[in-house]
Amino acid sequence: MKAPIITMNILFRVGQTLMRSATQAVRPVAASRQKYSLPDLPYDYGALEPHISAETMRLHHSQYHAKYVENLNRLENLYVEALEKGDGVVPRAIEQDLIFNSGGHINHSIFWKNLSPNGGGEPKGALMDAIRRDFGSFENLKEKMSVASMSIRGAGWTWLGYNKWNRTLENVTCANQDLLHRATGLTPLLGIDVWEHAYCFQHKTNRSSYIKSIWNVVNWDDVSQRFNTAESSNTTCT
Which segments of the chain belong to CATH 1.10.287.990? Predict the structure, then answer.
């Protein structure tokens, strides 16, 4: 089976653009290869307490996100090595694992900046105007995203995304570590991680309690910046 090289190239081109903005942690290793790095958090592990515990942040960042980065670098090496063999054949498992782990890295890199110890409250300015236009009110947006987060079976993400075609905001969910842009074409603005590792150390199986807590630490300045960039450039990049 021939590897879908064009599809994979598009995935990584979009992914690297997102990661440069989200993490500023992509460093070149060779002309044909870039190595991915675990981004530092813009706050201490305990800075989001009591809403998100220090233990949760430490494990989520230093173990779970770090593993996605480790796997991404290993799998991309395997992918390049397979292509360099000259027959253009790449095992399907490598392709799927590469997509999964790149999604895990990109999604989390956005997620950390979507949170802040000075977060919570309500957005302001153009973002709030757009929320009221597309959802009726800020409370309606919170309700829709909270309900969507509870509706995910298993693991996934709930997103507030920007639709560049009709210039509106949309609330959608993605399974596992699927990338919002790859799945829907939307630009990610705000993500809620509803994998169990995001809340089980503090909230056990009570996903609802976690979702209520996370609204207290949403970094609306970051979300607004992403919205303003997406709207002004009308591109899929953040």
Answer: 54-114
Q: Which two tokens stand for residue 84?
A: 């360099």
pLDDT score recorded for residue 203: 94
CATH entry 1.10.287.990 includes domain 54-114: yes
Measured between alpha carbons, how far is 76 from 95 in angstroms, rounded to an integer?
9
The structure tokens listed for 224 are 């607004």
Tell me the binding residues: 60, 108, 193, 197
For residue range 21-74, list pLDDT tens digits in order: 343 333 333 334 568 999 999 999 999 999 999 999 999 999 999 999 999 999
CA of 185: how far to CAs of 127, 161, 165, 181, 235, in Å? Answer: 20, 9, 9, 4, 10
Separation between Cα atoms, residue 238 and residue 226, nearest integer Å: 6
H or E, element range at 160: strand 156-163
- List the binding residues for Mn(2+): 60, 108, 193, 197
Q: pTM value? A: 0.83
Ramachandran category for residue 26: left, alpha or beta (phi over 0 → left; psi -120 to 50 → alpha): beta
